[in-house]
Structure formats: structure tokens, C-alpha cells
């Protein structure tokens, strides 16, 4: 017979010491997604090779996307949060929903230096357009020694981006303003 009732069970930390597992590996998640949904056209048929190709097309992991541990409670010790894995999987999921010609188009632009984060094609075209504007302005004005954009650049760039955003917002809102349809 047990030495305690269900009401006075020892808590988690009294029974064992929790050893935090290593952070998850992005390739494992990609391989699982590719096994489940298939590899995109033009990618290797082997899941690990396709995962490596997809990773090579992605932007580098940013500081705020690094793995971090989220603490849990005494009964559930916690888990890893990895925003980079979320971004890479979301982009892959959206990419796989595109047609073959659209996928080739996106890969071509990724290789030209336009990152794809799973945006709709319309939004991706805006990313390309605004990236070109920014690159043109950097070519015109240069960068500071620290690599930052010079002070005079943000106003000019912001006004151009603001105009592009207003155009996009008006396109999105105009169908909402129609009444009686």
C-alpha cells in the first residue's frame, strides 16, 4: 500500500531533478513537415536534402529568434520556444500552397536577395518593390561607418514607404466600403 494519499503527493521537484533537454533542431521539424506535405517541385526528393535547400534559402536566424526556455510549473517543467523554427515552417507552409510557377518565381527572387517569409504574392511584390527603393537610397546616400542608414535617409524612405502602404491599405479597405452588394 502506498505511503501517501492522492491529496498529499510529493511535488515534482521532490521526486526528481528535471534536466532541460537540448533545444529542438530546425531540420527535424522541416523533415517532419516535408514528410507530411511532400517536397516542393524542384527540390530534392530526400526530405533531409530538401530541408537543407529550404534552410539555405532562408534569412539567417536573428537575435530575437534564438531558442529560449519558457519556464513551466512544478508539474510541467517548461519547454523551448524557437521563433526561427516558427518562421521557417510558416514560410514553407505558405510556399507549398503556391503553384509551381509561383514557387520558381519566389525561389528566383530569394536568390536575388529578397527574403520570403510566407507572405502572399501581392505582399511579396511590395517587399521586392520597397527593398529596391531602400537599396537605391542606400546606393545614393551610402551608409554610416557603423553600417546604419544616414539620418537624411529615413524621412525620404519613410515618405516613399508611407505612400506605398497607403496605396495597399486603400486597396484592402475599398472592398469594405462598398455597401449594398
**What's the number of extended β-strand segments?**
2
* Average of per-residue pLDDT values: 81
Name the shape in a single word.
globular
Strand order of the largest sheet: 1-2
Low-confidence stretches: none
**Percent of residues in beta strands:** under 5%
Helix content estimate: 40-55%
Radius of gyration using CA atoms only: 24 Å
State the order of secondary-structure elements, H for helix, E for strand: HHHEEHHHH
The structural class is mainly alpha
Helix count from the secondary structure assignment: 7
Number of domains: 2
Question: End-to-end span in angstroms?
Answer: 73 Å
Largest sheet: 2 strands, antiparallel
Task: Set down the secondary structure blueprint.
Blueprint: H1 12-15, H2 26-37, H3 47-56, E1 68-71, E2 78-81, H4 83-96, H5 100-111, H6 121-141, H7 152-177
Antiparallel strand pairs: 1-2
Helix pairs in contact: 2-3, 2-4, 6-7
Amino acid at each position: 500500500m502506498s505511503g501517501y494519499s492522492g491529496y498529499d503527493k510529493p511535488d515534482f521537484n521532490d521526486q526528481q531533478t528535471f534536466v532541460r533537454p537540448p533545444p529542438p533542431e530546425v531540420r527535424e521539424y522541416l523533415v517532419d513537415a516535408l514528410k507530411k506535405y511532400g517536397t516542393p517541385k524542384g527540390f530534392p526528393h530526400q526530405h533531409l536534402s530538401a530541408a537543407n535547400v529550404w534552410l539555405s534559402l532562408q534569412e539567417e536566424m536573428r537575435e530575437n529568434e534564438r531558442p529560449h526556455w519558457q519556464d513551466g510549473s512544478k508539474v510541467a517543467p517548461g519547454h523551448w520556444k524557437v521563433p526561427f523554427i516558427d518562421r521557417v515552417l510558416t514560410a514553407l507552409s505558405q510556399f507549398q500552397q503556391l503553384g509551381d510557377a509561383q514557387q520558381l518565381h519566389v525561389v528566383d527572387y530569394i536568390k536575388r536577395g529578397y527574403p520570403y517569409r510566407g507572405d502572399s504574392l501581392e505582399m511579396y511584390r511590395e517587399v521586392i518593390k520597397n527593398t529596391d527603393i531602400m537599396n537605391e537610397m542606400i546606393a545614393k546616400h551610402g551608409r554610416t561607418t557603423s553600417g546604419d542608414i544616414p539620418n537624411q535617409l529615413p524621412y525620404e524612405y519613410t515618405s516613399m514607404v508611407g505612400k506605398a502602404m497607403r496605396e495597399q491599405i486603400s486597396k484592402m479597405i475599398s472592398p469594405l466600403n462598398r455597401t449594398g452588394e
